[in-house]
Model the fold of this input.
Amino acid sequence: MNAWLPKQYGAWAMLVAPVITGAIIGGFGWGPVAIAIAWITAYLAYMAVRGAVTGRRKRQHVAPSVVFSVLTVLLLTGLLWWRPSLIWWAIPLAVLLGVSLAMVIAGRERSVINDAALIGASVLMTAITATAGRLGQGVDWITFACAAAWPTAWIASAVLAGYFWGTIPYVKTMIRERGKHGWYIGSVAYHCALIVPAFLINRWIGCFAVIAAARAAVVPKLWPKAKPRQIGIAEVMGTVALIVLLVATLR
Done:
């Protein structure tokens, strides 16, 4: 892993897609853009700190840890000055990222629990970014909840969560759990279970769910020796297609 810029194609797709989707659905403005930048910077800080704690070359991660952490604090300070009620989002984010941190400390950073927690935090950024412009200057819970409870933002978050959580078993069937029948069946079953709920949203999201299920069923069988980079690039392409569908059909 590069100390300054992690080379994880699939992870970058998961990281960036929610804030881009939220910013577009909620309407572009400096606030949503700043949230997106803060989230990406926070991720870089997290990865750098993780490398400084658990990596083989700890010293190389010290400088990026400091730089990205300082930038994150500055960006968050500016965002809280702009919309103080954003502080309420710290509660669910702290829980999800706390679970991930616990997994890292326990040496289980590649576990399903860690992956699910990180994806949960990432897709939550869809709602955070999309509803940011609706927040007022107050910090009371009721005002915040009314602004944050925008159905479109949560539908987009749910769709992205369904897709990205599905990448956990799918990618494992392609790499670490390759050839294991249980993981393959679980991956296909998960993706098939999403088809009906996806069609309830709209037919385009439903068609995407069908394609994702077909991918989970066919790709591990036809291309069992695909390289991680190829898998990651394919995930980026799928993520871009999903963003386009969400923006075109939910706005």
